[in-house]
Amino acid sequence: MTKTLRFALAAPLALALAACGSDASDTGGEIEGEAVAAVPAPEGTQWSDTVTVTDMDGYMIGNPDAPIKLVEYASLTCPTCARFAAEGMEPLISEYVNSGRVSFELRNQIHGPHDLALATLVRCTADEAFIPLSDQVFANQQQVLGPIFENQAAVEQSLNLPPEQRLVRLAEVGGFYDFFAARGLSEDQARECLADEQAYTTIADNSTRQSDELNITGTPTFLINGTAADANTWAALEPILQRAGAR
Fold it and tell me: Most-buried pick from 166, 172, 213, 242 (CB within 10 A)?
């Protein structure tokens, strides 16, 4: 087991909440640009239908050649990330992504074993389902996380099982199978994904490596063309996107 994975599995649940809420003000520079013209999507489509899995293990929607590239590092267990999803995703997609000016890429920062299980499950079906399933977790976050926090002893016991059983059992404790089955992911498929130690180790390793390399200290953290934006809400982020040229 890698050091990264050991930390992801052993991190106390309280740490997951502590890591939620980033402060990008010390890492970001000025984000300004000339106004960018809209780019029509291919006939009969809209840009939000285009999904690309990036070499950073992120899922990007929108024009792959959009001049303004927005990246969010998010934890599926983070309330501030859930708030952004509730307030920002609809206008971000309809007004910015579908204009072809902005692409949006969601990347996971892992905040504990339950977060790792969820990040594995949202990858367990078609690429196009990653962001919608993530949004469903955000929209129902208290329901999803309630059983985990109410049964911490059982969660800890699950992490002592063999690697191919750990997240499988954790998902049982959390009731994740019923939640995802109601959204099109069968329990058999979910169990198969969670038993894949190599897959979930890769997610954990990518989270740690990218966080270290890019100085991502909490979630949500937004990058616009590689520069950290001093924002963690849609109300704060939208004007920065506009200053970057999405106007």
Answer: 166
